[in-house]
Amino acid sequence: MYSKMGSTCYSAYSIQSLNPTCPSSLIFTLHKPQLQQTHNIKETTRRRSVRSCNSNTRTRRRMTGVAAMNAVSTPEVDVQNQQELKKGIAELYDESSGIWEDIWGDHMHHGFYEPQSSVSLSDHRAAQIRMIEEALRFASVSDDPAKKPRSIVDVGCGIGGSSRYLAKKYGATAQGITLSPVQAERAQALAAAQGLGDKASFQVADALNQPFPDGQFDLVWSMESGEHMPDKQKFVGELARVAAPGGTIILVTWCHRDLSPSEESLLPEEKELLNKICKSFYLPAWCSTADYVKLLQSNSLRDIKAADWSENVAPFWPAVIKSALTWKGFTSILRSGWKTIKAALAMPLMIEGYKKGLIKFAIITCRKPE
């Protein structure tokens, strides 16, 4: 593992030294049969590694995959709870997307700012575009006509802001998926209005079971949707599955802080704060950046890089709260419904989490082997 230009890069086996824990007890509990199965996998792997000392490469790869599953502790959410979560997410964005677009435009994600900057609303919208460009730069996505992406998937697309931007920038086809029918319909309408109806398409689909064949996309893009995923292991597996050989995966998501080697879990007060946020934003268990890196490693992905951009998004939530306190914002929230009101009331908790160093705004990028 080594640092370069503010990011952390991971070599083939340095990931084994990380020791994160995903606090899955925040929302769901891990069933005992699943714990027993994990234990059996670990024990079987241990025996095989002892008997196969001349197969070090295969053993390391197998142990990395098992370590990733154990470290993240992603719960096997029962069908009923998972369906309730998806329903809540869809309804939240059905209610709130129109308000967001009216005030902030079609990019439903943080902006990227210079630290300690003072900005206006127009600057915030520019910062959202800058977030996209900075993510592309961080992942070294090429503008070379011979190397630029031709096929893009936007996982958790909102109303399609990133999809349309990327399709236009690269002359590529972009497909977006969301749980919200309102978002999918609006995203398609905006694409048609912007003359991108033949380049950008949108549908209601589950990121944990994407309706695409293996290896379809040169660029797999997930901008602030990973935090909604109840099964992080399956989520990362799907990102890897739909990526084309040599394709790039860009994952920008909310994480909790990495744990120190002496810690087994977050502090009780930290869990309590995250739990409050989860209930308002329809989030399952949070994971750390290190958790995600382990999962990417377990899928044999290469050139993994990660960075903490929390300082670069610091002005965002105060600006969102300020816009919500205007007469237009306040009345719109009240009209929208209870889910949007709950989310609005939780916004100060996000600021608290960032200030305490508990919440991290992470970017993680990697490449699928040729």
How helix-rich are the residues, as a percent range? Answer: 40-55%
Which spans of ≥5 residues are poorly predicted at pLDDT below 50?
Answer: 11-77
Envelope shape: globular
State the separation between the terminal residues, measured CA to CA.
22 Å
Q: Count of DSSP E strands?
A: 9
Describe what you observe in this structure.
The structure is a single chain. The protein is of the alpha/beta class and 370 residues long. It has two domains: 28-73; 77-367, Vaccinia Virus protein VP39 (Rossmann fold). The chain has helices spanning 32-51, 56-72, 79-104, 121-138, 161-170, 181-193, 232-242, 268-281, 289-298, 316-324, 327-336, 338-345, 347-355; strands spanning 2-4, 7-10, 151-155, 173-178, 200-204, 217-223, 243-256, 302-308, 359-367. The chain has a nine-stranded mixed sheet with strand order 1-2-8-9-7-6-3-4-5, with helices on both faces. A hairpin with a 2-residue loop joins strand 1 and strand 2. The longest helix is centred in the N-terminal third of the chain and has 26 residues, at 79-104. It is globular. Residues 242-251 are annotated as: SAM motif III. Belongs to the class I-like SAM-binding methyltransferase superfamily. gTMT family. Homodimer. It comes from Nicotiana sylvestris.
